[in-house]
Design a protein that fits this description.
Blueprint: E1 2-6, H1 11-15, H2 22-37, E2 57-60, H3 61-68, H4 70-80, E3 88-96, E4 108-114, E5 123-127, H5 130-140, H6 143-147, H7 149-152, H8 154-157, E6 160-162, H9 165-178, H10 184-205, E7 211-213, E8 220-222, H11 223-226, H12 229-232, E9 235-237, E10 240-247, H13 250-258, H14 261-265, H15 273-276, H16 278-296, H17 306-313, H18 325-335, H19 343-350, H20 357-360, H21 363-372, H22 374-379, H23 383-388, H24 390-398, H25 400-413, H26 415-441, E11 448-450, E12 453-457, H27 458-476, E13 482-485, H28 495-505, H29 511-516, H30 523-536
Antiparallel strand pairs: 1-5, 2-4, 3-4, 6-9, 7-8, 9-10, 10-12, 10-13, 11-12
Length: 539
């Protein structure tokens, strides 16, 4: 098993004074390599390595003791935090997760991070011994990983390369961004951004393709999911460009197919929570029992109340939520919505009276803003945001009952677990069913996934689109809207793409703003970009 560690680490020097036997030295060395790999920032993990926006990574001792051994865990911490020559720092924020977290996370946790000397993004890959590798793999192994082997094998069976024209595209993109600023902080952010692109190209060129299936959300993450979308058009598989299909308004589409009591209560294999997230199914089942008890024993509600009658008849009511007639109607309308249409534009159009004529000139921009906050509609549990964000309010106005049920889900199971429900459902539909069906019919064809988007080459794209539409229709009972995108390779980035990136970068124009995003900056990226631009200018 290979792990990634800081390139500048000199472990033999660290362990020299320990006077270890050859076998003991190798064993302890590999355990240290693994521990440090958990803290090593790379372009693949830099955005989410640290927990809750903190500057330290939470490490739970019980997990590490299980993998490294109880005594060796403490030896490793002592060696790496040596006051004279520390490699890592730890904070004083302890967290006892026994009562709150899953079984895998129970125990005391503390925050750790690499010191700046080693935390540059410059890394190297080392191999650790089989015994330790087996324990790590066993700890992370899940049945879902095994079931998606037909997809992970694609990275071994297919030849993945990058169109060399990507370098010219990057140079032109850099020049467009550089022309917009003369601020040192923004320039560093731009160089980090360009260096990250070069990092991914180098990875593919060196055949360092990685992939893993998440135990939490069942998504297949890979070098393709990490790669910026602007670069994906340069990907070649077996020397052919990829084409993509994706599901229109995929998260709203999935939500409309699961907002039924049957999805949450059915206890057999099929399109339901029992199949996609069994632990959560049991949690909701217990919660529902409690709600039913309160509901049936509520003396204020008459036995003849329409709420009591409709609750048992309607498949759209969950957890005894009492909906008004308007709310109930909106849930049913949402459940029947034809997603072949433009979901976001329809919401804008239904609220057209709320906009003045000047704003309505650019309906597409309004649509994109609504689309960009859809994740907040689904997963933001902050009521101040939900009650004040203009675009969340648009959704609530059109679908008030759906909003009531979303907020009920947040209260009962939490926004994080709700996100897992949605993501596991997406994976069940797209990976377990659509991709599997496609692979059965075309076992030699390339098939790659980026969540709700599927990629293959031109000769298979029509079949993939047909299989996707039919499979989703059969499972959910709802016809999806599907978009087909061909690669349009140009070495000159179009203005909207540059503007979209510039919008994210231009605000990093002061030291304080730069420090807020500094945890996403890798010095190695900046050096890669500087060397590339300097050498490119000579060509």
């Amino acid at each position: 098993m290979n792990v990634t560690i800081p390139a500048r680490l000199n472990l033999p020097k660290l362990l020299k004074e320990e006077k270890l036997t050859k076998t003991r030295y190798k064993n302890l060395r590999d355990k240290i390599y693994y521990f440090l790999s958990l803290l090593t920032r790379t372009n693949d993990n830099v955005l989410f390595l640290f927990d809750d926006g903190a500057s330290h990574k939470k490490i739970c001792s019980c997990i590490q003791k299980k993998l490294l051994g109880n005594s060796d865990y403490y030896i490793i911490i002592k060696l790496l935090t040596n006051k004279e020559n520390p490699i890592i720092l730890k904070n004083k924020r302890w967290k006892n997760t026994k009562q709150k977290e899953s079984v895998e996370q129970k125990g005391f946790c503390q925050g750790f991070k690499l010191i700046s000397k080693y935390d540059t993004g410059e890394t190297r890959i080392v191999r650790i011994n089989k015994s330790l590798s087996d324990r790590i793999i066993e700890n992370s192994k899940s049945e879902i990983s095994k079931s998606y082997k037909f997809l992970t094998d694609q990275f071994k069976r297919q030849k993945i390369t990058i169109d060399p024209r990507s370098y010219e595209y990057i140079a032109n993109f850099y020049n467009e961004l550089k022309a917009k600023t003369n601020n040192i902080y923004t320039e560093r952010a731009i160089n980090n951004f360009i260096g990250r692109w070069l990092h991914y190209i180098n990875k593919v060129n060196n055949n360092e393709n990685w992939y893993r299936v998440s135990k939490e959300n069942h998504r297949l993450n890979s070098i393709l999911t990490s790669m910026p979308k602007e670069l994906r058009k340069f990907i070649l598989v077996n020397n052919k460009p990829l084409e993509m299909i994706d599901i229109k308004s995929s998260q709203p589409y999935i939500l409309s197919s699961i907002l039924k009591s049957r999805f949450f209560k059915e206890d057999k294999i099929g399109y339901n929570l029992f199949t996609t997230y069994n632990d959560m199914f049991n949690k909701i089942k217990n919660s529902d029992k409690e709600s039913n008890n309160l509901y049936h024993n509520n003396s204020i509600i008459s036995d003849k109340s329409p709420y009591k009658i409709s609750k048992t008849r309607s498949s759209l009511y969950m957890w005894c939520e009492f909906l008004t007639k308007k709310e109930s109607q909106s849930v049913m309308e949402y459940g029947l919505y034809e997603f072949k249409n433009d979901f976001y534009q329809d919401i804008i159009d239904k609220n057209i009276a709320d906009f003045d004529e000047k704003i309505m000139i650019n309906r597409e921009e309004l649509r994109e803003k609504l689309k960009s906050v859809m994740m907040l509609v689904l997963f933001d549990s902050n009521y101040q945001n939900r009650n004040n964000n203009a675009f969340i309010k648009l959704f609530k106005k059109v679908y008030p009952g759906v909003n009531v049920l979303i907020e009920k889900i947040h209260r009962i199971i939490g926004k994080k677990e709700f996100a897992y429900i949605m993501q596991r459902t997406e994976s069940y539909l797209m990976l377990n069913n659509v991709c599997r069906e496609f692979n059965k019919k075309f076992d030699d064809a390339p098939i790659f996934t980026i969540h709700d988007a599927l990629y293959t080459t031109n000769e298979y794209i029509t079949d993939l689109q047909e299989i996707t539409s039919n499979t989703l229709q059969n499972i959910t009972g709802k016809t999806p809207g599907i978009t087909h995108t061909k690669s349009n390779v140009s070495t000159f980035p179009d203005a909207p793409t540059v503007d979209a990136r510039w919008l994210k970068l231009k605000s990093i124009d002061t030291k304080s703003k730069y420090e807020k995003i500094e945890h996403t900056i890798l010095q190695n990226n900046i050096e890669l970009a500087e060397d590339f631009i300097k050498n490119w200018s000579r060509i």
